[in-house]
Amino acid sequence: MDRAEIFTVLKKNMTEIIGGARGREILETHRLLQDFDADSLEVVEVISRTMKQVKIKVSRVRLNEANHIGDLLDMFVEAQEAGATPAAR
Questions:
Q1: What is the value of pTM for the model shown?
Q2: Which residues of the chain have pLDDT under 70?
């Protein structure tokens, strides 16, 4: 999967799980919690579902570094391109 395809999966999961994302444009500069009024459980579900569908894993420590959707997408793409989990970092 390329970046655009991963972003499409992420956006689909956001609109299905986060009520504040439905019917809204989702940009890489947006923040999950603040810009879409998501709670932490919704964010975890979006991230978990996306990683499962894309068949990647990113450590929780690394995920906590993401401030914006673009940061999260960068991590997903990096893990996809590496073909392995970056959990050991």
A1: 0.88
A2: 84-89
